[in-house]
Design a protein that fits this description.
Length: 379
């Protein structure tokens, strides 16, 4: 039976427990499983690195939400990225990165994987001609974030998929900022979706995790083999927390987006603000593409201070309801200075972010209280 997104979020992978009828998936806190004779496995479970029923439930939910064939859950978003790249690439291969990739992704590729022999080129993914020039015979992956972190740029997923597939490369889309509620890249031609499940999928700032979802079952099998062989899997309690968060993803994202839209309009008219980066604004350069491939514009926005870096730092320090912290996607609002916090590893590189930039993860508090906090922080 075909079901809507919110129904899948509540039920996919989360059927009542057959043993007890419990409507909430149990947390299977076990490292190993009794075998009914040598090789006689119950449900295929033998060791929890290889498989755990709570993680299986999360993986089924991830695949259902992204409309893919295979979902895999990891200990962190970067563990998912590392497993993916080491599976589909070999030393000497090449990856195209966005010109404003997440700092952790850039660090992983440019520092950790470069020692392994993986080469990379940062490119503005809105310039398809520049992308085609950057592609090499050894290019295995075109990596996309949309919206990007922290500049909120938008890439055309369908157009990138066409270019990638012409070159025989995979299109990988980091869908963390949008979440599968607002955007499903596999339906637009992407091959793999990446998530930091720490963020909107978990939604409560109480878990660290990552996920991969593939369009192709064969690639999913390869990645599942690597997941077991490399071992950076989500623990059962972490998997359970993400499952808990997924159930309310839709209603939370509606509120995140509504609050962010109000705040973007407020910042746009404030004299201390030089620019507002939010794809929901009609004059955002990616607005039309975002409106085409997303069902909403999300809860993330950034803005630049007319007074420069010192003004940006002061706003971060004066905020009260907006907690000064890294990460994003929780029910509480967060504020940060990307240049000195989440994206410090990109300093001095082509991906360095502006020093006057402030990033907001807009929570689900009463928006009038959030607006008042920003008003006093900007005063």
């Amino acid at each position: 039976m075909s079901t809507g997104f919110n129904t899948r979020a509540i039920h996919a992978g989360q059927e009542p427990d057959p043993a007890t009828g419990a409507v909430v998936v149990p947390v299977h806190l076990t490292s190993t499983y009794k075998q009914d004779g040598v090789g006689g496995l119950r449900g295929g479970y033998e060791y929890s690195r290889s498989g755990n029923p709570t993680r299986t439930a999360l993986q089924e939910a991830l695949a259902a939400l992204e409309e893919g064939t295979t979902g895999l859950a990891f200990a962190s978003g970067l563990a998912a990225e590392d497993t993916l790249l080491r599976t589909v690439c070999a030393p000497g291969d090449h990856v195209v990165l966005p010109g404003d990739a997440y700092g952790g992704t850039f660090r992983l590729v440019s520092r950790a994987h470069s020692r392994w022999g993986l080469e990379h080129t940062p490119v503005d993914l809105n310039d398809l001609d520049a992308l085609r020039v950057a592609i090499r015979p050894t290019t295995r992956v075109i990596w996309c974030e949309t919206p990007t972190n922290p500049l909120l740029n938008i890439a055309d997923i369908a157009a990138l998929a066409e270019v990638a597939h012409e070159a025989g490369a995979l299109l990988v889309v980091d869908n963390t900022f949008a979440s599968p509620y607002l955007q499903r890249p596999l339906t637009l031609g992407a091959d793999v979706v990446v998530h930091s499940t720490t963020k909107y999928l978990g939604g409560h700032s109480d878990v660290v995790g990552g996920g991969l979802v593939t369009a192709d079952a064969g690639l999913g099998e390869q990645l599942a083999w690597s997941q077991n062989a490399m071992g950076a899997v989500a623990g059962p309690m972490d998997a359970w927390l993400v499952l808990r968060g997924i159930k309310t993803l839709g209603v939370r994202m509606d509120r995140h987006g509504a609050n962010a839209a109000r705040i973007a309009e407020f910042l746009l008219g404030h004299p201390a603000v030089g620019a507002v980066l939010y794809p929901g604004l009609p004059d955002h350069p990616g607005h039309d593409i975002a409106a085409k491939q997303m069902s909403g514009f999300g809860g993330m926005l950034s803005f630049r201070l007319a007074g420069g870096e010192e003004a940006a730092l002061q706003v971060c320090e004066r905020a009260r309801l907006f907690t000064l912290a890294e990460s994003l996607g929780g029910v509480e609002s967060l504020i940060e200075h990307p240049g000195r916090m989440t994206h410090a590893s990109a300093a001095g590189s082509p991906l360095e972010v502006p020093a006057d930039l402030v990033r907001l993860s807009v929570g689900i508090e009463d928006v009038e209280d959030l607006l008042a906090d920003l008003e006093q922080a900007l005063a």
